[in-house]
Amino acid sequence: MGKNMVLRLLEHGWDIAAYDPIAENVREVEEKGAKGTGSLKALVEKTETPRLLWLMVPHQRVDNVLKELTPLLNKGDTIIDGGNSNYKESIRRGSELREKGLGFLDVGVSGGPRGAREGACVMVGGEKGLFEKYEVLFRDMAAPDAYGYMGRTGAGHFVKMVHNGIEYGMMQAIAEGFAVIKASDFDIDLREVCRVYNHRSVIESRLTGWLQKAFEEYGEDLDEISGSVSHSGEGLWTVETAKELGVSVPVIKESLKFREESQKTPSFTGQILSALRNQFGGHEVKNEQDNRESKDTYF
User: Fold this and answer.
1) Pairing between strand 120-126 and 35-37?
2) What is the percent of the chain with per-residue pLDDT over 90, rounded to a whole number?
3) CA-to-CA distance for 290 and 262, rounded, in angstroms?
4) Following CA atoms 238, 243, 244, 246 in sequence, which dihedral angle do they give, to the nearest 10 degrees?
5) Which residues are catalytic?
6) 185: enclosing H helix or E strand
7) Which of 71, 75, 203, 267 is most buried per CB count within 10 Å?
8) Maximum CA pair distance of the chain?
9) Sign of the dihedral through C-alpha 279, 296, 157, 263
10) Interaxial angle between packed helices 250-261 and 155-183, expressed in degrees from 0 to 180 and rounded to the nearest 10
C-alpha cells in the first residue's frame, strides 16, 4: 500500500522523499520521480521544516520507528500513522509527540493496495487544525469524496478498527452463504451467482465482485486457497472495545471466533474468506504458503 500511495501522490504533483529498508523498493519509486533515501536520517535531511512524514508500517513497529525518527525532527513537524494501529496507542503517541512539539494525525486507510493506487477511503483523527492544513493531501490520496475528519486523536484509527470489525462480519456472511450454495445438490455456477448478486441486488458490493474474481482465478473449488483464515488484529480490538463499552457485537465476535478456530478446522467457508483477503489486500493465502501480513514500510 505504501508504494502505491507514493505513486498516486506523485501523479498529483507532490514532492516526495521515500524510505524503505529494501533498496529495490526505493529504486522503484525513484524511477517514478520520488527522492529515494537509504535511512530515516537521510529522509529527514531531504525534507524541510515543517515536515509532513507518513508512516506506513505494521502496528507492532510504530514505536520503534518513532523512537528512531523523532530525535531527528524539529518542532512543528507532523507525523501521520497510516497503518492499522490500535486507537489507544494512537492516543498515547499523539500525547507524547505533542509534548515534543510535534504534530500527529492517526489515519485509517481502507481499500487495500488497489485502493491506495486508484483512490482510497481515508479516515483522519487528530487536531482539526492539522487536518485542515493537510486536507489537500487526503483529498488527493482518496477516491472522490472518500475522506473525512473523524475527531480528536485516536478517532481515525478507532473508526478504521470498527470498519474492519464490520468487514469481518460481512465477509463471514458472504462466505457462509456461498458454502451453503456449494453444499446443495443443485449444480450451480458460483461465478454466475456472484455476477447476478452484484447487479442491483441488496448485497451488491465490492466484496461480492472480489469473490467472483477469486472464483475466476482459482476455480470454484478454490483448491489452491487455504481454508485457515488469518486475522490482523482489528476484529479482536473491535470485540474487546465493544465489551468495554457494553455493546453487544455477536456477528463480529463469531466471525473472529471462526477465524481463530479455522487454524485447526479449515473449511470451504475459510477458503472463501482467505480468497477475499487475497483479492482486496494482497495477502498470501495459498495452501503452500504462510498467511503473512504485508510488510510495506514506506514513509
Assistant:
1) unpaired
2) 88
3) 14
4) 120
5) 160, 167
6) none
7) 267
8) 67
9) positive
10) 70
182/132 Cα distance (integer angstroms): 50
Amino acid type, 6: V
Residue 151 pairs in a beta bridge with: 125
Cell of 59: 502496528
**Residue whose grid cell is 512524514:** 53
- Dist. CA 157–CA 82, nearest whole Å: 9
DSSP 8-state symbol, 225 = B
pLDDT tens, position by position, 10-48 = 999 999 999 998 888 899 999 999 999 989 999 999 899
**Unique residue bearing C-alpha cell 472518500:** 146
Q: How open is the CA angle 3-112-158, to the nearest 5 degrees?
A: 110
Locate 244 and state its grid cell.
468495554
Within 10 angstroms of residue 260's Cβ, the number of other Cβ atoms is 12
Rounded Cα–Cα distance for residues 107 and 57 (Å): 12
Partnered with residue 109 across adjacent β-strands are 122
The β-bridge partners of 106 are 81, 125
Q: Give yes or no for a contact between 1 and 57, defined as CB atoms under 8 angstroms apart.
A: no
Closest-CA residue to 111 (of 90, 132, 141) = 141
Beta bridge partners of 86: none
Give per-residue pLDDT as tens, 273-298. 999 999 988 877 777 544 333 333 33
Place of cell 518542532: 75
Is the bond preceding 50 in cis, omega lying within 30 degrees of 0?
yes
Contact 26, 297 (CB under 8 A): no
